[in-house]
Amino acid sequence: LVLREEKKSTLVMDGIAVPHVKAEGTGKTTITLGLSRDKVDFDLTGENKDSSARVIFAVVFDENNSYDHLNVLKDIMDIIQKKNFLDTVLGFNTPEEVCRYICGLR
């Protein structure tokens, strides 16, 4: 993921990044969600001055599964574009609350 991020920032909107990579031999798609109350610098390329993220969806795809690649990224984009998504998820206190909220958006 770091090597991918060094090529081009995956900051997709203010405060939200979706780093993703295809990897050999994973056999499945793995998604990890990270939340930070503090801003995390998310531009390893040096292209953007204000490139901080507080919500990070890190995704690893199996290199042979292009179907998951496009659909998962589309689903994440649909979720993060919901009204007040950033403030809502950062307002929760437990991972369970975040999971219930995100699962309820689908």
Layout: helices, strands, pairs:
Layout: H1 2-7, E1 11-13, E2 15-17, E3 20-23, E4 30-41, E5 52-62, H2 66-80, H3 85-90, H4 95-105
Explain what this protein looks like in three dimensions.
By secondary structure, the chain is of the alpha/beta class. It has four helices and five strands; from the N terminus they run αβββββααα. The chain has helices at residues 2-7, 66-80, 85-90, 95-105, and strands at residues 11-13, 15-17, 20-23, 30-41, 52-62. The chain is globular and about 35 Å long. The mean pLDDT is 85.
Report a brief summary of the structure.
This protein has 106 residues and is α/β, with parallel strands linked by helices. The protein is 36% helix and 31% strand.
Index terms:
single chain, about 110 residues, alpha/beta, 5-stranded mixed β-sheet, 4 helices, about 35% helix
